[in-house]
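Can't paste images in this forum, so I'm doing it all in text. The chain is below; anyone willing to post the predicted structure tokens underneath?
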Amino acid sequence: MSIFSHPAYDKHEQVAFYQDAKSGLKAIIAVHNTNLGPSLGGCRMWPYADDGEALNDVLRLSRGMTYKSAMAGLKLGGGKSVIIGDPRKEKTPELLRAMGDFLNTLGGRYITAEDSGTSVADMHIIGERTKFVSGLNESSEHGGDPSPSTAYGVFVGLKAAVEHRWGKTDLNGLKVSIQGVGNVGFRLAKLLKEAGAELFVTDIFQDNVDRAVTELGATAVGADEIFDLDVDLFAPCAMGAILNDDTISRLKVGAIAGAANNQLAEERHAAVLREEGVLYAPDYVINAGGIIDVYYQQQEGEYSPAQVKEHIESIGTTLQEVFQRADETGETTAHVADRVAEERFGHEDALKKTDTAAA
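Text version of the structure:
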């Protein structure tokens, strides 16, 4: 299949492939759009089933980063990188340095940061070979790690969803199922626990589940069982495409608000959720806390945690606007968010609609 006819290809500006036999690196970088600035997005390392799965993931993720930065009001474009391999078994300093060499070949059109399967420590190693890496500002609140900011932004957005769906600001007694309790998911779970929520968790790594049970009093459930729970809200915080025909029909929730990227398997699933009466918080809007933090780490001058927190808390306001517009127009929340983002980063279709309206 040609890259241009790939289902996930969305007029991406550049897709680059790289292999380094010595270190074992196999990686892909996708630059979706740079209208607002250089593309920025995390470097994910994952044991993909095959190369096609990795390509599909990086295309979808990079597109999401364009929309995420636009909705967060950042002067950044959208890009993403993926390394094919098990981060717990195959990650080495040599492989990470080779990734730095790969980044240099794009000449700054793409800047990376930590993501699923990578860490701030990994970014420092990548940074030995390239300057096109972010999330390393040790003067930032969490030493450069954007995960806490991502989790906080999701928490803020989740509260906005609860207020819109049920008209309440108190999370005490709210039943929340969380799929994935890694760096971001666990921090979100901790914030929810402190707010009085009852937690049900699952993760592909048993040690992550055990930590949530031991430290937060969460109830552990099976990986597939998570979709069948009778809870108030579902928070996907793992991999994407988990909202599909099978899982949506099994959900018994009133709202979905989580950190995972590309939660909808297909665009049409946003309409399915709406028909089922489920409020969906568009993923790239609610999980923008990390990219906001990284953006401020890149700016000249002293890093201000208060300024970053204020910007992250605007995620709640943005989501309330999306929810309200969706109610008023009858559109899905995903479609409303897409339209707003496309107007901001100059998507061709959005510009055509604007010109037509003006005429």
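The radius of gyration is 19 Å. Residues 305-329 form the longest helix (25 residues).
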